[in-house]
């Protein structure tokens, strides 16, 4: 008589060889306790976490001759519940369970960082607490600020009195106007500090710029063209407190003379010229009228506007020389005293304007 063997679903169990490799990796070990008189064809592995308590399928088709499995990308400081089932042709075993607590680690990298506000001397940065603290409360943050030339401006520690707070900020004061800085932050706990956040640039707004230096006004006469001109030159300010965009050149003119009616006239005008720094020159030149007094004053323009104007001095005033009248006078000629016997002629000239200079 032939012996009959009962074929059943297998039984499996975790062994104590399970190893936590690091703060995010574990290797599970198991053995087939009873194969049900049939070869085990595959295993199915699931996990739950203590955070969301959802069941996640790790692998549903592990080969039947496998006795261990390594799981990566786990979160430090969490407890995971793993469950395993074995299959043969007779069916599926009951699940067996194993809880594994992952060791705590330093906090993860802060990933949400923004510039919240800026003035000409301050920068306010904000960041969000990492979604997971890796098993140990965040105790403080380290913040660093570097100038764009690489020099360290500030290295500060900000202690956290409310561990559950999600949003944080830090303000740096006493910075230079119109300069670009790089900010980084790292979260720290009792085990140490995590990686630095990605560098974030912030730029202070421009401050009030100093006026240009060594402003000089020169009046000149070009004899080849018989024309007058003025030339203004200057040097950049000592402290631009930002990016110089242009210069304001304000020219005041004054001319006093007798017009063609013999009346004394005084002309006063002002003109503003904006010299763009893209022109790469610190000079302004223009043709002018003769017999005119000129004064010039200037300011530096950056992104905050026009700074204080320069004072008028002997170096910023000049006078264009007198010149001959621009038009000939009208004249008439007739006999003197209207006498037919008189052979003298009388020449009458009409007065012309002395705008170009006094007629002697």
UniProtKB/TrEMBL annotation:
It comes from the Eukaryota. GO terms for cellular component: membrane. Coiled coil: none annotated. Residues 9-106, 109-207, 211-321 form the Fibronectin type-III domain. InterPro entries: FN3_dom, FN3_sf, Ig-like_fold, RTP_Phos/Ushers. It holds the Pfam family fn3. PANTHER family: CYTOKINE RECEPTOR. This is Tyrosine-protein phosphatase 69D. The lineage of its organism: Eukaryota, Metazoa, Ecdysozoa, Arthropoda, Chelicerata. The gene is Ptp69D_2.
